[in-house]
Amino acid sequence: MKNEKLPKPAPLGKEMSAREAWRLFGIMAEFVEATERLAKIWPAVSVFGSSRVAPDSPYYALAERTSRLLSDAGFAVISGGGPGIMEASNRGAFEGRAPAVGLNIELPHEQATNQYQDISLRFKHFFARKVMFVKFATAYVVLPGGFGTLDELFEALTLVQTRKTRKMPIILMHEPFWRDLVAWIRARLAGENMIDPQDVDLLQVIDEPQAVVDAIFAFYEKRGFEPSPVEREILLNL
Predict the structure, then answer these.
(1) How many domains are contained in the chain?
(2) What are residue 104's DSSP bridge partners?
(3) Which helix (H) or strand (E) holds 215?
(4) How far apart are the first and last CA of the chain?
C-alpha cells in the first residue's frame, strides 16, 4: 500500500478552465472597484463586531457612539455593511462628519445591507473584502463578536506582527468580553513562546468611546496619518 501512487487529478475541461479564468477577472474587478472608491476616504478606521446584536443591546449603543465620535473627529468608518454592530458603526458614522463605508459580502443566507452607508461595496470573495479592511485602515476597533470578528482580529494581528502591513492601533472594546481571551494569549501564546512577549502589546483594551479616539490620535501624534514611502510599498504588496 505504501508504494502505491495516488492517481493524477483529471485535467480541467475547457469549460471549467474558462470559468476559472472569468472568476479571476471577477476577483480583479472587485479589487479595482474597491480601491478606486476607497482611495480618497483617508484616514479611516475599520470597526468589527457581531451581526447578531440587536439595536437595544449596550454593544450596539457602544459601537454607534464610538463611530459617531470617530466620524466627527475626521475618520471614515468602515464596517461590514450588515446588521448588528456593523449597522451601529455605519449609523454612528452616517450621522457624523466623515463617510460611513460598508463592505458587504454575498452569503448563502443573504446578509441584509444596512441603510446607513455613504459608500457601499459588495463582494463575492471574503479575501478581497478582508484586504480592503486592512489596506485603508489607520486603526482597528473590535467590539464583541463571533468567528468572523475573531477572524478579522487575528488577521490584523498576524499582518502587523509579520510586518505585512504597517503597525496601527488594534483596540478591543468592552473589557469583560475580551478578558479571558487576552489572559489566554498572555499565558499560553506568549507564556509558551508561541509569540514574542511584546506581541501582546499589539492589543489595547479600551472601554470608553472618547478614549478610543484619543488613543488613535496619540498613536499618530508624532508620525502623522500619511504612510511613509516604505509603508506605501508594504500596502501596495498587501
Answers:
(1) 1
(2) 122
(3) helix 209-220
(4) 44
Contact 46, 11 (CB under 8 A): no
Contact 64, 92 (CB under 8 A): yes
Biggest CA–CA distance in the chain, Å, is 68
Q: Which domain holds residue 102?
A: 42-236
Signed CA dihedral, 234, 221, 36, 131: sign only = positive
Asked if the structure places residue 16 within a domain, the reply is: no
At 164, which CATH number?
3.40.50.450
The strands making up 139-142's β-sheet, listed across from edge to edge, are 119-123, 100-105, 76-79, 44-48, 139-142, 170-173, 203-206
- Read off the amino acid at residue 92: G
pLDDT digits (tens, 9 = 90+) for 145-199: 999 999 999 999 999 999 989 899 999 999 999 999 999 999 999 999 999 999 9
In a domain, 63, yes or no: yes
CA separation for the pair 179, 186 (Å, rounded): 11
Rounded CA gap, 13 and 226, in Å? 48
Question: Exposed, middle or buried: residue 189 (CB in 10 Å: 0-12, 13-18, 19+)?
Answer: middle
Query: What is the DSSP pairing of strand 76-79 with strand 44-48?
Result: parallel
Residue 103, SS3? Answer: strand
